[in-house]
Amino acid sequence: MDDREKSGLSRRALLRRATVVASVAAGVALVPAVAEAEGHQVDTPVPEPVPPQVPATEGTVDVPGGHLWYWDTGGEGPVVVLVHAASGSAESWPYQQPVLARAGYRVVGYSRRGHYGSSGFSDDDAPVGAEDLRAVADHLGLGRFHLVCAALGGYYATDYALLYPERVRSLAVISSFMAIQEPEFLDTITALRPPEFDTLPTYVKEVSPSYRAANPEGLRHWRDIADWARLPGSAYRHVVVNDITWSKLATLTPRTLLVTGGSDLYLPPPVMRSIAEHIPRCSTAVLPETGHGANWETPSPFNRLLLRFLAGARTRPGGH
After folding, report:
1. What is the DSSP string of 86-146?
2. Contact between 132 and 139 (Cβ < 8 Å)
3. Which three-class secondary structure state does DSSP give residue 84?
4. Could you give the count of Cα atoms lying within 13 Å of 32 in the half-sphere of its Cβ?
5. Which strand (E) or helix (H) includes residue 276?
6. In this structure, how many other beta carbons lie within 10 angstroms of the beta carbon of residue 141?
């Protein structure tokens, strides 16, 4: 039993605690009364509780030099694989797991190497992120599936979609630079983050002021997961096989959805839209008063948007 299990902060304990806190103390998430992605004026966000989780099988996948931890809701429906941000792990999707499962999808989340439940690695022995994702998919016999990814997870999901396009039904990307290597693009995002930016706490950089002000319990829950996400002493950046340029992005074949928050300090809406211009069959959406993790801060609008996208709908060109 590791230190986290001893402290009572297992995945189930975290989710159970968050659900209780949400129902007693007005919830942990912000949900606009009307979603901007639907093309209407958005009212002030109101709290939203963490929903009860659907039972899932947990296990590990052996990979060269280590293992990957995953959970899987099972079922016969289309598969959705969730790929977490650098500040997260397989625990980071409590708002999506039950919603997607109850909509008929088989939902799989896994922790990349260097993150909670999986093994660590060194910078000198960094694995290929897309190949670890393939190992999970092969182990579980997933066939073709939908990919939903956040932030740094979008690097490896995009690489996977380029390497194995026949296995990806669609690609939904939350606030990610997608490992783009175009010099002008890199200059733009570097200018958005001066050296002082890196000295800020992760929760300040990633969680919007609106959420932090309105939901201190939700922020504590987010920080619980983030605090345990990175393995001490381990690297966390994986290898990307493709040199992802504008011309390479133009070869993406799955339907793609790009989502960001209006308050995202990493990927503000104009930067997201500049990426979308280079991706065929790409829709975009902006969720207001939301930071770097729309799936966490405004989950119901995000989930409605995602479910429509998975079912084949498009948002308006260029987003909102």
Report:
1. TT--GGG-TTTHHHHHHTT-EEEEEPPTTBTTS----GGGPPBHHHHHHHHHHHHT--SEE
2. no
3. coil
4. 24
5. helix 269-276
6. 7
83: part of which helix (H) or strand (E)? Answer: strand 79-83
Contact present, 150 and 85 (Cβ < 8 Å): yes
DSSP 8-state symbol, 127: P
Rounded Cα–Cα distance for residues 192 and 227 (Å): 25
Give the pLDDT confidence of 48-73 residue by residue, as tens digits.
Answer: 788 999 999 999 999 999 999 999 99
Cα 297 to Cα 109: distance, rounded to the nearest angstrom: 19
Cα separation, 187 vs 208, in Å, equals 24
Fold of 3-35+47-310: Rossmann fold (3.40.50)
Residue (of 80, 88, 55, 56) closest to 70 by Cα position: 56
pTM, rounded to two decimals: 0.88
* E strand or H helix at 3: helix 3-7
Q: Rounded CA gap, 167 and 134, in Å? A: 10
DSSP bridge pairs for 31: 46
Task: Choose among 107, 45, 87, 106: nearest CA to 176.
Answer: 87
Q: What is the pLDDT of residues 221-277, one digit of tens each?
A: 999 999 999 999 999 999 999 999 999 999 999 999 999 999 999 999 999 999 999
